[in-house]
Design a protein that fits this description.
202 residues, mainly alpha, Arc Repressor Mutant, subunit A, 72% helix, 0% strand, transcription regulation
Length: 202
């Protein structure tokens, strides 16, 4: 029963995300969500409290897995270069997997309750702090250029990674791996080249 409930709730959350993305939170109705999910309106109310609860659940399901992934990367025994690569890949993967969720968050975050908005902003600060820590470690390890302002780079980098959700199309000509490689290659002026053993030093 618990598994069935969790499955049904997730079905409704996913349906709500698609409806909110198409119509916006204000214009979307519970009836729209029920139709999208292929269930009756009473069934929706059997599992969820309100339209706003669905919106806040969408945001929670987006932000917390990403933060957990960043924490795991930071706590791992990878090298700083490997951590940075894993960080970029995590963002790309999440931008693709949760693209609709990101679009809803961008358009409708002002509809969140005061507490939910506070939680989201706290999460955003935590992600920025983790990014700054990672980049600082990368500078110390000689992976990232030392002449750049880490605070500015953090905001530019995270803004770039989130912007993927506004234009990327999974059915397009660029796959997830190619997208990651494009982003990595574009940052070549920011990331110091890897030096292999035996490479002559200038």
């Amino acid at each position: 029963m618990a598994r069935q409930r969790a499955t049904t709730v997730q079905l409704l959350v996913d349906a709500a995300a698609r409806v909110f993305e198409r119509k916006g939170f204000t214009d979307a109705t519970i009836s729209d969500i029920a139709t999208e999910a292929g269930v009756s309106k009473p069934t929706v109310y059997q599992y969820v409290n309100s339209k706003r609860w669905l919106l806040e659940t969408i945001v929670e399901q987006l932000i917390y897995p990403l933060k957990d992934g960043i924490d795991q990367i930071m706590a791992s025994d990878r090298t700083e270069r490997e951590k940075l690569a894993a960080y970029l890949r995590l963002h790309v993967d999440n931008a693709i997997k949760y693209q609709t969720y990101y679009l809803v968050l961008t358009a409708d975050q002002h509809q969140l309750s005061t507490q939910a908005l506070r939680n989201y902003r706290s999460w955003a600060r935590d992600v920025n702090a983790a990014t700054e820590n990672l980049l600082t470690d990368c500078v110390k390890a000689g992976v990232v250029r030392s002449d750049l302002d880490i605070g500015i780079v953090t905001n530019l980098l995270n803004g770039l990674l989130v912007s993927v959700t506004s234009w990327y199309r999974p059915s397009g000509r660029v796959g997830a791996e190619a997208l990651y490689q494009h982003i990595h290659d574009m940052l070549a002026g920011f990331i110091e080249p890897e030096r292999h053993a035996g490479t002559a030093q200038g």
